[in-house]
Amino acid sequence: MIDGRVRFSEIDHTRKITVPSIINYFQDCSTFQSEDIGVGLDVLSKKKKAWILTYWQIVIDHYPKMNDKIQVSTWASKFKGMLAERNFCMTDENGEKAAYAQSVWVYMDVEKGRPVRPDQEELDAYGQCEPLEMEYESRKIALPEESMSLEPFPVRRYHIDTNEHVNNCQYVQMAMDYLPENFKIHQMRAEYKQQARLNDVICPARAVDENKTTVLLNDQKGEPYAVVEFK
């Protein structure tokens, strides 16, 4: 659990926290937990292993504003084979839920580039708690039947994280560029299908429904690196 205060660098023109900032708080919270229990980045790097995010479902009830105090918590809710499920919750200074999330992770052998089972001692370190009460959607996002292709762009250095591929939050930021004007995000889902690396070309496409926008971030063959759905 981490305590924070919404910073100027985390808000948009409405003076409220942004969706990428919420994601970064969630991501930082899980990273700090891993460090605190002794299975952080250095430990996993020596093993040539990593937990890779494959799916987000983030629900935003309301957006805390600049200078608001917030608290962020996370816990593992399920382990099965090579997969793990993890919940997140951001509460405001009144103890009300501002945002919460479900996520799915896969344990990867980064040297061999394939999923493997984590050691039991690692799983024991995390423990397992009851899942958050929320309306869970499918981790598979339905692809739109029709979409509009948009201008391709290359992966830049600032998109890349410690695993040498595009950070999950960066995909969401890319997709947000294609939202209709004044679109207020209540829920975001992201499904990560393959890893984009430095200098890869991303070919975006967009489908807009009445209350939903789906953005495909494809490779040059038309296969998605990530699918991001906003409601």
Overview of this structure, please?
The chain has 231 residues and is an alpha+beta fold. It has helices spanning 19-36, 41-47, 120-126, 168-176; strands spanning 2-5, 49-60, 69-80, 83-92, 97-109, 114-115, 148-149, 153-154, 187-192, 201-208, 213-218, 224-230. Strands 1, 2, 3, 4, 5, 6, 7, 8, 9, 10, 11 and 12 form a twelve-stranded antiparallel beta sheet that branches. A hairpin with a 4-residue loop joins β4 and β5. α1 packs antiparallel against α4 (168-176).
Topology record:
Layout: E1 2-5, H1 19-36, H2 41-47, E2 49-60, E3 69-80, E4 83-92, E5 97-109, E6 114-115, H3 120-126, E7 148-149, E8 153-154, H4 168-176, E9 187-192, E10 201-208, E11 213-218, E12 224-230
Antiparallel strand pairs: 1-3, 2-5, 2-9, 3-4, 4-5, 5-6, 7-10, 8-10, 9-12, 10-11, 11-12
Helix pairs in contact: 1-4
Core attributes:
about 230 residues; alpha+beta; 12-stranded antiparallel sheet
Order of helices and strands: EHHEEEEEHEEHEEEE
Tell me the helix content.
Answer: 10-25%
Structural class call reads alpha+beta
What sort of overall outline do the alpha carbons produce when their principal axes are compared?
A: globular
Percent strand equals 35-45%
